[in-house]
Hints:
The complex is a heterodimer of chains A (392) and B (91). Chain A is 35% helix and 16% strand. With 392 residues, chain A is α/β, with parallel strands linked by helices. By secondary structure, chain B is of the alpha+beta class. The A-B interface holds A 158, 160-163, 190, 194, 247-252, 255, 272-278, 280, 295-301, 304-307, 311, 313, 318, 344, 346, 348, 350-351, 355-360 and B 5, 7-10, 18, 44, 54-57, 59, 62-64, 67, 82, 84-91.
Amino acid sequence: MASGADFIRKVKEQxxxxxxxxxxxxxxxxxxVVIVDVREQHEFEESHLPGAKHxxxxxxxxxxxxxxxxxxxxxxxxxxxxxxxxLAARTLEQELGYENVESMTGGITLWKDRGYEVEVPRRLTxxxxxxxxxxxxxxxxxxxxxxxxxxAKVLLLGAGGLGSPTALYLAAAxxxxxxxxxxxxxxxxxxxxxxxxxxxxxxxxKVDSAEHAIHEINPDVExxxxxxxLDASNIMEIIEGYEVIVDGVDNFPTRYLxxxxxxxxxxxxxxxxxxxxxxxxxxxxxxxxPCYRCLYPTPPPAELxxxxxxxxxxxxxxxxxxxxxxxxxxxxxxxxGEPLVGRLLLYEALSTTFTNLKVRRDPECAICSRExxxxxxxxxxxxxxxxxxxxx
Amino acid sequence: xxxxxxxxxxxxxxxxxxxxxxxGGNVGEVLRALAGQHPATQxxxxxxxxxxNRYVNVYLNDEDVRVLDxxxxxxxxxxxxxxxxxxxxxx
Lengths: 392, 91
């Protein structure tokens, strides 16, 4: 009876072996070559060749087709030192009819000794696995989507009716950085709907109160606070670097200013507004779909713009609209589903009706028909009676 | 009779009604019939030259009438018109 070492030696004589220096260029430009790591899960998770597929040798026969469907394609197998990959190469060639299989000599150990790069996959901590387990179970999010959420930077304009539920759900979803712009303090009359705040925080700046609520749900979220009003002098500085902006501002001048700045920086805006029992929602993704000015090229006159004064609103309405915004943010960050781009959703709470309207890009749009670089500072937020709009 | 959905900001002009029915063969006729029933909406919908105010979007079912034939867009009795001025409330 041959020893195990003799057997492996014999197998290595039967299969083709390839030196790491020949595999190295394939990492940059694979040209149809499939590199397969046949080690165990924990070994693969520690580090692997960039772009390598993972098929543990124990599951080789049942899973190889998921990694290399075409039996005539060149397949390079590797393991830790070149033994398991030689055995696997023999199986692929002799038992499964793969025509062009090689085993990398010396495995990933020799690869690393040569100083070649490896990929170290990011992992969730055991606590994160537990916290986000219901996301991990949804294929549209999964571990990749969750990692994207953890890396995401999302800016909330306003920590009021819309911003409160959005902040809470985005914090719960694990969005890594949440910026909040709000210059207001918590008032008793806010608490009918602004669920991020509380009775014992009346008088506290809303950015501080919202931070408190976010950290009560998820202490890992980094909160960046801007206790200020968004205006032409600070908007570019504040919004730059965020990947999604959630718009819940309460006045037209700021909405137009935000639109123009976000088009210039090409940041998508998840926009909602509420009044009484009615809500509107849309996603403005610059140059991919229409912008706010395509939808509303001209603001209404002050008497038709009830945003200026205090208006009644059903307390739960911003809850619905803010949570819809949070869902659109998660879709944009994880790249799942079809975000509400080029569509406007109307929600009428009294009749419980959702209506979808089409919104087209305006080829003549004053802002998004142009290159982002050509939008000047002076044109941003261009708005009739900018100063007087709400006082008039 | 076509249905017209009235947005919250125009409801004071329609006596609080959220939905109004009006006759007409095209969008302009239906909206003018609405203004006939509720004169306060006239100035909110139309400019002095009789064209639709630019800050008011009107949808025939789910399509903006501006990408159709504007006020001349044909309307069938089973159609719904949605009037949609911009809203900005967030708080």
